Amino acid sequence: MKGVLLVNLGSPDSPTPKDVKPYLDEFLMDERVIDVPKWLRILLVRGIILQTRPKRSAEAYSKIWWEEGSPLIVISERFTTKVRSKTALPVALGMRYGSMSIKKALQELKGKGVDEVLLVPLYPHYAMSSYETVVVKTMEVQKASFPEIRITTLPAFYKNDKYIKVLSEAIASGLKDIDYDHILFSYHGIPERHIRKSDPTSFHCKIDGSCCQTNSVAHHSCYRHQCYDTTERVKAFLNLPDDKVSSSFQSRLAGDPWLKPYTDYEFERLAKEGKKNLAVITPAFVSDCLETLEEIAMEGKEQFQEAGGAEYKHIPCLNDSDPWVELMVEWIEDWNKKEVLPV
Ligand SMILES: C=CC1=C(C)c2cc3[nH]c(cc4nc(cc5[nH]c(cc1n2)c(C)c5CCC(=O)O)C(CCC(=O)O)=C4C)c(C)c3C=C
Ligand SMILES: [Fe+2]
Ligand SMILES: [Fe+2]
Known about the structure:
It is an enzyme of class 4 (lyase). This protein has 2 domains: 2-157 and 322-338, Rossmann fold (3-Layer(aba) Sandwich), CATH 3.40.50; 161-315, Rossmann fold. The chain contains 12 helices and 8 strands. It has helices at 17-28, 38-64, 71-85, 102-111, 128-145, 161-175, 192-197, 223-238, 263-272, 290-293, 295-306, 322-338; strands at 2-8, 91-95, 116-121, 150-153, 182-188, 245-250, 278-281, 312-315. The strands form 2 sheets. Strands 2-1-3-4 form a 4-stranded parallel β-sheet, sandwiched between helices. Strand 3, helix 5 (128-145) and strand 4 form a beta-alpha-beta unit. The model has no long low-confidence stretch (mean pLDDT 96). The protein binds the ligand C=CC1=C(C)c2cc3[nH]c(cc4nc(cc5[nH]c(cc1n2)c(C)c5CCC(=O)O)C(CCC(=O)O)=C4C)c(C)c3C=C and fe (ii) ion (2 copies). Residues 9, 11, 24, 33-34, 53, 57, 70, 72, 123, 127, 129-130, 188, 190, 223, 251, 253, 284-285, 289-291 line the site of ligand L6N33NVT.
C-alpha cells in the first residue's frame, strides 16, 4: 500500500535554552550542515557555538512562538491535515531535527500497512543542508528499521510550472497591500563551499555566480542557480519590471563566506538608493518559521527603516493555503495513479 511522508526541518520543543540546545546540537552536528571533519565540528559546535547561541536563539524563538507551539511545526501540521483530508492515502509528517522524528513518521505509516512511500522534502530547492540531508536521513532510517518499505523521492520543485503559478499568485496577492518600489527575494543562505561540493562535474560552479546562466547538469544540485531560477520564473509569470526585483541570501552564520548578496546588506543598500517601499518574499521556505517571522518580518523591517526606508511588507510563505495544498495533492495523486513525479 502507498503512503506519503512529508518532512520539514523541525524546531525545538519550546523557546527555552534548555530545549533549544539539544535541537541546535542535532542540527549543527549534521555533517551536511557543518561540513568539516567530525573532530572540528565537535570543537566548533559544542566548544564554541553552543556556549552562547541557545540563549540568543531562544530569545528569538520567544518573539515568534505561538500558543500552539513553533510556527513551523504548527503550519506544517495544518498543511498535513489539509492534504490528508484530500487524499485517500495515509500521510505522515516528520521533521529532520527535533522530537517529531522521521522514524516515528515512518512507524506511523507502517502501522497503516504502507510499504511504498512518497518522500516529500518540504523544500523547493536542492541544498545539501536541506533537501539532501532529509533524503539521506530517511534512507538511513529505512535501511536500519524499515527494510520492507520502498521509497520514492519528490524532486526539488523550484521551477515546476504549477508551483511557480501558485507561488506567483500568492505573491501577487501580497503585493496588493503595498505600493512597492522594490521586491526582494530573500533565500536562506548556505556557505559558498557547499555549492562547489554539490557540483557533480567539480568544475561548473563558480563562486561569483557567472556559471548560473549557462546550462549544466550541475544545476540539478546547484542551490544558487535554482534560487535565481525561481526568481526569474516568478518575475516572468507576474511580468515584474527587471529593475524592481532582486535576490539575496539570509541567515548566515559567522565564519566562512556565504552566498552573496547578503539580505541584511541589501536592506541597507536599497534604502540608501532611495527605495522607500519594500516587499520581501522568502521562497526557500514553504512555511513561515523563525527565519521569516523574526529575521525578515521583524529584524528586516527595523534594518530597512533605520537605513531610511518607509513601508515594508514581508509576504507570507505558502503555508497551508488552499492552492498549495491542492498542488501537493495533485502531485501525490499523479504518483499514486500514474507513477509520475513533477518536473
Ligand atoms: C551552517 C548552518 C546552516 C545552514 C547551512 C543552513 C541551511 C538551511 N537552513 C534552511 C532552513 C531553515 N533554517 C532554520 C533555522 C536555522 N538554520 C541554522 C543554520 C543553518 N541553516 C540555524 C542555526 C537555525 C536555528 C535558529 C538559529 O539559531 O538561528 C529554519 C527555521 C527553524 C524553525 O524552527 O523555525 C529553517 C526553516 C534551509 C532551507 C537551508 C539551506 C538551503
Ligand atoms: Fe537554516
Ligand atoms: Fe551555477
